[in-house]
Amino acid sequence: MFQPPSPEPIRFAYWVPNVSGGLVISRIPQRTSWDAAYNRRLAQIAEEAGFDYALTQIRFTAGYGAEYQHESVAFSHALLAATTRLKVIAALLPGPWNPTLAAKQIATISQLSEGRIAINVVSGWFSGEFRAIGEPWLDHDERYRRSEEFIRALRGIWTQDDFTFRGDFYRYANYTLKPKPAEPQPEIFQGGSSRAARDMAARVSDWYFTNGNTPEGIRAQVEDVRAKAAANARRVRIGVNAFVIARDTEAEARAVLQEIIDHADPEAVKAFGHEVKNAGRASPEGEGNWAKSSFEDLVQYNDGFKTNLIGTPDQIAERIVALKEVGVDLALLAFLHFQEEVQYFGEQVIPRVRALEAVRDAAAARPAAA
Ligand SMILES: Cc1cc2nc3c(=O)[nH]c(=O)nc-3n(C[C@H](O)[C@H](O)[C@H](O)COP(=O)(O)O)c2cc1C
């Protein structure tokens, strides 16, 4: 079912480097830091550059490069306190979090930040992490069943008094949370691309985040999520991951990509690939994130090279608009040297995207020739 692209401007989010090692499994030197001072400054640069959202990550243990990991909710609050417009998306992992604590934490941060907090409900890919912290590792589709109940419970607690819910994972009896979140209600993002993930997005999420891919590779997912959401009388927006290498010439950008891959840590990349493919094995249709990832793809945690935002500002702007044409609402971006590259992206790429969008809007508004 074809649905036209959104007339709204495409939004931009960046991955918060709140874990060490950046967003690539590579020993290439990076000027990115996971510490608080670097990240506060980065958030200020990003909102100045025209970014709408920052996405924090949740990791409880090291693995495949992420030796140190700041916790996502507390870190998100620090970024909100350092900014005035940026929305910050805090990652929540059902299991370690239950909806009671999550609803209370996020409602308080929403009050403190005048509604600028959002959440990303992640369902888990790292079985070793679950084992290390004594959390049961559920089958793939069970993890999504729990995430869906988690979201239903959160929404109920945030919007109703005397909330009552009887699920398989969570139960509430006449529970009233006060204060509730400030308006607008926190947006609910979700990370994951399998059939279970798409079905859950269509039923309960506001946003569906998927791994990097080409416009053609994304089209089928977008159409599936949108059609299922429409059948539930809902609209779900789509965010796609990309690793950006924007340089004055395409050759420079390609050389940086090659350098990242040449410095990849082969053992860590292979072990990461094994872990993520294993995590999706119980997903019956085999279409989850990483199902078709090559060694080179896996050097970036979420297949961000596949989206090919690698080249000159003009090339990248055109590719972003091509993503929008297949229904993408938000580009979620990672960089090698975050502060400098977020600023360059804001100066060189976002204005080009806005100019291309304006040309398309004008063409769409013109009456068709007789
Ligand atoms: C944009 C995005 C962000 C994610 N962030 C996290 C995270 O912070 N922590 C985590 O454990 N998993 C994270 N994940 C992993 C997902 O929750 C999920 O486990 C994974 O994508 C596999 O899902 P699938 O089998 O449905 O494709 C993220 C995924 C995406 C696409």
Automatic annotation (TrEMBL):
Q: Does the keyword Nucleotidyltransferase apply?
A: no
Which stretches are annotated as coiled coil?
none
Keywords carried by this UniProt record: Flavoprotein, FMN, Monooxygenase, Oxidoreductase
Molecular function terms, GO-annotated? alkanesulfonate monooxygenase activity
According to the entry, every stretch annotated as the Luciferase-like domain falls at 34-329
What's the superkingdom here? Bacteria
Cite the InterPro entries for this sequence: DMSO2_SphG (IPR024014), Luciferase-like_dom (IPR011251), Luciferase-like_sf (IPR036661), SsuD_RutA_monooxygenase (IPR050172)
The record's Gene Ontology biological-process terms are: alkanesulfonate catabolic process
**Protein name stated in the entry:** Dimethyl sulfone monooxygenase SfnG
Source organism of the structure? Methylobacterium soli
